[in-house]
Amino acid sequence: MSAVYINGAACISVQDTLNEKFFQNLKPENSSQVLKAIEPNYKEFIPPAASRRMSKTVKMSSVASKYALQEAGIENPDAIIVGTGIGCSQDSEKFLKNVLDNNEEFLTPTYFIQSTHNTVAGQIALGLQCHAYNFTYVNTSSSLEFSFLDAKLQINDGEAENVLVGSTDEQTERTMELYQLNKTIKKEENLPVDYLHSTTDGVIWGEGASFFVLGKDKTENSYAQLKDIQISNRLDLDETQQFIEDFLAKNNLSTQHIDAVILGFSGDAKSDVYYTKAMSMFENSALLYYKHLSGEFNTASGFSTFMACHILKKQEIPEVMMINNVKKESIKNILLYNHLGGNDHSLVLLGKA
């Protein structure tokens, strides 16, 4: 498959990533169980009447997608593809609460209509009046990677030239309570967390929306080349290095060719061992981590892809992301490795545009 270009990138996250100077103002978060996204003033982007009926994930995605399309100079993409782990869970919760509160009678359909996972892609298309291919992937932590793969195939097959690809996930009160009960989220007594040397299980949960415009052609605004993607649902710990080596070999690369590796250390001792295993392969690469900035969530890899795009374009790495002290004169290839709780492993290879 030939490479495609990332020509626009926007992100709403726990950091102030819509701000142009966000690169210098990244603040690690390690002492709350749940991290909230910094949201823009939606009135500037969405009519108030429409905004009232939208859930947080739809609003975040609408704004992030507008920014990404503006950057790429695209008014109407040839396809809209969104990846999400838990979709519009706020509206799902509201609908189920109404079912219980009203004894399954006299229910308004609004929350039900807007609770489906594909609401985000649908609302973006309505806003743009875009009648093209519209698809939503719901594959836990590899939802964005599947979306990228679909977009790449469409561009390589000549079915599309510019594709809007995004990932989004929001928090809801009840779901966060359940995550605390089943120990997905760290216990209070285990905070603050040392992301790289954690001895306790569980994570700090975040949220956010990241959108990218993939294009067939390079432009002067291009951030990066999306070279390849590999996804594996299950992986034994001792298969990790082979998984990475095979992926690099497929792209005619060795570990020496990788200038930076972005790893998804989440502070969950049980599943972070995969990253430790991967880390030992890249002695001469800059090793980075990011979930101390974004929190862990189903589509946290959207944040790391966004950061990787900026690192490739600016040719500099924020100090706050560094695990080791390896400095590179030029950054050509970045490898992103992510999974959620030891499942759904993904590798994404980005190159300098």
Automatic annotation (TrEMBL):
Which protein, by its recorded name, is this?
3-oxoacyl-(Acyl-carrier-protein) synthase
Q: Does the keyword Signal apply?
A: no
Q: Which Pfam families match?
A: ketoacyl-synt
GO BP, one example?
A: fatty acid biosynthetic process
**What InterPro entries does the record point to?**
Beta-ketoacyl_synthase (IPR000794), Ketoacyl_synth_N (IPR014030), Thiolase-like (IPR016039)
What is the scientific name of the source organism? Answer: Chryseobacterium taeanense
Task: Drop me one GO molecular function for this one.
Answer: 3-oxoacyl-[acyl-carrier-protein] synthase activity
Xref: PANTHER family: 3-OXOACYL-[ACYL-CARRIER-PROTEIN] SYNTHASE, MITOCHONDRIAL, POLYKETIDE SYNTHASE-RELATED
Q: Which GO terms describe its cellular component?
A: cytosol
Instruction: Say which domain of life the source belongs to.
Output: Bacteria
Name the SUPFAM superfamilies on file: Thiolase-like (SSF53901)
- Enumerate the spans annotated as Beta-ketoacyl synthase-like N-terminal domain: 46-217
Q: Which UniProt keywords apply?
A: Transferase
